[in-house]
Write a structure and sequence with these properties.
Shape: elongated
Order of helices and strands: EEHH
Mean pLDDT: 85
Low-confidence stretches: none
Strand content: 5-15%
Helix content: 10-25%
Strand order of the largest sheet: 1-2
Radius of gyration: 16 Å
Structural class: alpha+beta
Largest sheet: 2 strands, antiparallel
């Protein structure tokens, strides 16, 4: 879980608040098993390999701190 404190933004009429992100890391029990996403369980979910994460651009595709956390955890 990642927690980020967001300051007040008078221009957007937003009070200070927090964002909480949940990251779920998993691997199949059988590495040869084909990974299939059950689309009815989530529209924005997808499988990523470590190489996929390494290739994501922190300016446009992933928050830099999230990328670092994931890469620290993966073997």
């Amino acid at each position: 879980m990642l927690q980020e404190n967001i300051p007040e933004c008078p221009e957007r009429r937003e009070p200070a608040h927090q964002h909480i992100d949940f990251l779920f890391l998993a691997r199949p029990l059988d590495e040869a098993q084909e990974l299939v996403l059950a689309e009815d369980e989530g529209e924005d979910m997808q499988w990523f390999t470590k190489a996929d994460i390494e290739a994501l651009d922190p300016k446009t595709e992933i928050f830099g701190n999230v990328k670092q956390y994931i890469l620290q955890i993966l073997p």
